[in-house]
Amino acid sequence: MRLIAALAALFMAFSAAGCWDRKEPDDMVFAVALGFDIDEDGDYVAIAQFANPMAAKAGVGPTSQPAGSAPFWTNCAKGRTPFDALSNLSPALSREMTVSNIEVLLISERLARRGIAPIMDLVARDNELRLAVSAAVVDGSLESLLESQLPEDPIPALAIQRMLNPIHFIDPSAMSPGLLQSIADMLRPGQDLLMPVLRLNAGAGSESGTDSTSPGSPVTHMGSAAFHRDKMIGWLDGHESRGANFARSRSQHAPISVQSPAGGLVSIHITHVESTITPRCVDGDVSMLIRAKVEGHVQAQTGLDQGQAGVNFADPESLQHLRSRLAQCVREDIEHALARSKQYKSDFVGLGNAIYRRLPQVWRAGVGERWYELLPDVPVQVEVEAALTSSGLLRESLHY
């Protein structure tokens, strides 16, 4: 028994030594961001961003970059297919390229409107690419974005990845669902894709997007791109994106300001959202019910000047007023998202998928085949229940 254990330990020690695929890291170059676009001839364009290891060893920062020591660099190539374009990046590289460490996958608006199915097919088949990678649509020049320097991080891919997956509550836009969730949304019947948007700011892309006196960010994460099947159909603003997130239970952090019963505004931080979509079918007529439960806590309030006392958060009547106003604001955001969904005939909320899952016999009876024709006329009732879990460290308001 001891001999078997010793042999097993020896085997594990040998198997753990070295690289499993016999590829030395020094012989490889690691892409940290990957983007796809199309040119005027309809060919695919692949743009990869790489970290500069020499700059990292030298400790070069974004504000002091000697010639040839930039913290990152980009490479661009074309091809008739996405894989051809990706493969054509190699001739300009002295090492073998790998995409196993990319942080973000970016798609240009022009390509998104033509269709992203070939891109998703490529990433789903690639055994190197991690499907937890964040993805977004770029409103503006994709190449300029990948060549721009963001002030938060010397490697733009890292800053963009954090931007798409915020831990803050200040961003009402859609968070990146990741490639796996995006592919799943595209494959689900009655479900369309909703992707976050990165907008290139005016003047970005020149001089690496930096300025010696005001290094503002060259990109803004705001709004979403709505898809019909694999083609982008239009934009959603911040409120519509937030409403879609509320309806899909994909927004756990959002800021909302409501009217105060004492005058002014009360800012509330949404900390939890739980929603259900219930389909109904009566005499062949389909309708939907969306129930959302939101929780939040009070962050701040205005209207405290001239001796006004503000809101008494220990008063049940005042709290009930705030809960009602919060529920109304969430309901309005969801209704705005539904209106845009019907206008675009893009079911990014997933109403059709709720029918497919909960009323499969209705879906197979013909609703599924005509769903996008029926979507604009389907009545949707929205019910929201709101709760305030905390008023912070103050029970009473500051007033002077």
What does the model show?
32% of the residues lie in helices and 29% in strands. By secondary structure, it is α/β, with parallel strands linked by helices. It has two domains: 19-236, no CATH class; 251-400, GMP Synthetase, Chain A, domain 3 (2-Layer Sandwich), CATH 3.30.300. The strands form two sheets. Strands 1, 2, 3, 4, 5, 6, 7, 8 and 9 form a nine-stranded mixed beta sheet that branches. The protein has a four-stranded mixed beta sheet with strand order 10-11-12-13, with helices on both faces. The longest helix is centred in the last third of the chain and has 29 residues, at 316-344. 37% of the residues are buried. Mean pLDDT is 82; it is low at 206-214.
What is this structure's SSE topology?
Elements: H1 2-16, E1 28-38, E2 44-51, H2 53-58, E3 72-79, H3 82-87, E4 96-98, E5 104-108, H4 109-114, H5 117-125, E6 134-139, H6 142-147, H7 156-164, H8 178-187, E7 194-200, E8 219-228, E9 231-236, H9 238-248, E10 254-259, E11 265-282, E12 285-301, H10 316-344, H11 351-358, H12 360-367, H13 371-374, E13 380-390
Parallel strand pairs: 1-4, 1-5, 5-6, 6-7, 12-13
Antiparallel strand pairs: 1-2, 2-3, 7-8, 8-9, 10-11, 11-12
